[in-house]
């Protein structure tokens, strides 16, 4: 008996999580939304905590992350919490390092499909980070916040140079054993491993993948920013916001 929980296959993104499950269940929520006057798709998966399965103790600390770009843009979201972190037995996982790794890996995946790299946009990242923080603090997971603001609304309240806008969001945990929809069991203890896990979640979902690779009805992106918030309990909220400026 390994303590494996039955997999949840449908999640209501509008409902708050059941606090009673947090002692035995970690659910990774995943959603995608393309905002360019039309909502093109939202998808969810829900991997879960697996008890009683050891994943091994060997893990190497993250290499130095490739700097994504400007960390102190002239214009930022007033609700941007800045850097957050969580200490594992391997390293202190910082949100800024995760953001850098995610941005670099997204551009690597795009290059594999003949796409140009996305330029890092510090203001867009600040808006994404503020939304990740708000979701953690207000205990919700959705593209539309409790005030009814959608991704483009949140950006427009800070600046207005993006003609098209999109958002991928994800929720997971650091230093917890989780079983993904594929059946794989993972435990993220480093920033680069967490970043790869987030990118894989998005790339394994059609709507998220379309946003990243500009397929389907997705507009051409020129810029992007990644915003991650890591809570004191190890919860991780992440967003990558896309911008079509030209």
TrEMBL record:
UniProt keyword list: Membrane, Transmembrane, Transmembrane helix
Membrane in keyword set: yes
Domain SCP: 105-240
Domain of life of the source: Archaea
Region of interest (Disordered), residue spans: 56-92
Membrane spanning residue stretches: 21-46
Chain intervals with Polar residues compositional bias: 81-92
SUPFAM superfamilies in alphabetical order: PR-1-like
InterPro entries on file: CAP_dom, CAP_sf
Name of the protein: CAP domain-containing protein
Organism whose genome encodes this protein: Natrinema longum
């Amino acid at each position: 008996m390994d303590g494996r929980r039955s997999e949840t296959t449908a999640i209501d993104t509008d409902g708050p999580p059941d606090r009673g499950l947090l002692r035995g269940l970690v659910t990774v929520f995943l959603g995608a939304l393309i905002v360019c006057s039309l909502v093109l798709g939202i998808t969810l998966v829900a991997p879960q905590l697996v008890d009683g399965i050891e994943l091994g103790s060997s893990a190497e600390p993250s290499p130095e992350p490739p700097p994504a770009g400007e960390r102190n843009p002239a214009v930022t979201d007033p609700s941007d919490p800045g850097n957050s972190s969580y200490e594992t037995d391997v390293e202190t996982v910082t949100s800024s390092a995760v953001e850098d790794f995610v941005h670099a890996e997204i551009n690597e995946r795009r290059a594999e499909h003949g796409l140009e790299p996305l330029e890092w946009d510090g203001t867009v990242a600040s808006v994404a980070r503020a939304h990740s923080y708000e979701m953690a603090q207000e205990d919700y997971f959705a593209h539309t916040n409790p005030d009814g603001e959608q991704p483009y609304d949140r950006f427009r309240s800070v600046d207005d140079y993006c003609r098209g806008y999109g958002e991928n969001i994800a929720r997971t945990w650091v230093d917890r054993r989780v079983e993904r929809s594929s059946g794989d069991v993972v435990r993220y203890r480093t920033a680069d491993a967490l970043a790869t896990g987030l990118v894989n979640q998005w790339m394994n979902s059609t709507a998220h993948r379309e946003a990243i690779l500009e397929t389907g009805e997705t507009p051409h992106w020129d810029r992007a920013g990644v915003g991650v918030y890591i809570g004191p309990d190890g919860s991780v909220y992440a967003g990558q916001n896309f911008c079509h400026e030209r």
